[in-house]
Amino acid sequence: MTVFPRDPQPIPVLKAYMERHGMALSALRPDGSLKLQVDTQYRVELRPVGAGQLAMVSALVRLSGLPAASRDAFLARLLWVSAGLVREHVCGLAIDPSRQRLELQQRLPHRLDVRGLEDALADFVNALAMWCWVCRQEAPRWFDVPLEIG
Asked: Is the model's pLDDT at 3 over the cut of 80?
């Protein structure tokens, strides 16, 4: 589990990204994060994590209220899939215990420019789309009710 600390200071590359895409700085949340809607279906949060770095975070599956045994087996299966993809994707799965959800997270490197942020965001959204698909494929094996995915 990775819990990123909050940093309320605006990150220069995030401000530059917002300017490039015509976003007002007022779109930044009080903690300095920015929530994006990508391809009309994927929500990604660009979150300051201290020392001038950003992380990308997106909810995959709401876990609260799911039967513990099925939930744990489902998560074990997803971790098994994740282990097979570790060389292809720099993002990873994590559980946000306060929100009771499975997330996809990626910490971005220092000294990232706007183009690097755009490229990283595109790669992250591609990985997010794949993980949403995996969750939809796996969920019926473990649960009788549809899951809230994405």
From this structure: no
For 108, the token pair is 């971005």
User: For the residues of 46-105, what is the DSSP string, one character each?
Assistant: EEEEETTEEEEEEEEEE-TTS-HHHHHHHHHHHHHHHHHHTTT-S-EEEEETTTTEEEEE
User: What's the rounded mean pLDDT across residues 48-57?
Assistant: 90
Write the burial class of residue 91 (CB in 10 Å: 0-12 exposed, 13-18 middle, 19+ buried): buried
Output the pLDDT for position 6: 54
Domain ranges for the chain: 12-142
Query: The whole model's pTM is what?
Result: 0.88
Work out whether strand 34-38 and strand 42-50 pair parallel, antiparallel, or are unpaired.
Answer: antiparallel
For residue 25, count other CB atoms closer than 10 A to its CB: 11
> What are the residues whose beta carbons fall under 8 Å from the beta carbon of 43, sequence distance 6 or more?
35, 36, 37, 58, 59, 150
Query: What would the CATH number be for the domain defined by 12-142?
Result: 3.30.1460.10
Residue 11 has pLDDT above 80, yes or no: yes
